[in-house]
Amino acid sequence: MPFLLPVSVTQDNAVKLEKEGLLNLPTLRTVDCINLKDFDSTVLIVLLAWQKKLQADGQQISVQNVPEKLTVLAGVYGVAELLGLA
Asked: Given pLDDT bands bounded at 50, 70 and 90, which one contains residue 25?
């Protein structure tokens, strides 16, 4: 079962979301962005933190249903390949 991102990921909820994800580490291998509508580059920080933890455990993150804006942001910040969005 994938970890579903909420509709909004901004500075207001990023720390809480990151902690929630880390508490549900097994589901983080697949992150579903189907609900994600309102976000900024903060979502990249959350995804990268999760990716770092998974890599330390020898695993990889898979991000599904990625909005085009997120792919563009990841490219601009140079992290698209790290998140499998390239």
From this structure: confident
The domain segmentation of the chain, as residue ranges, is 3-76
User: What is the C-alpha to C-alpha distance for residues 58 and 34, in angstroms, rounded to an integer?
Assistant: 26
The alpha-helical segments, DSSP class H, found in 1-86 are: 14-23, 42-56, 68-76
CATH 3.30.750.24 fits 3-76, yes or no: yes
The pTM is what? 0.94
Measured from the Cβ of residue 25, the count of other Cβ atoms closer than 10 Å reads: 14
Closest CA to 48 of 66, 28, 65: 28
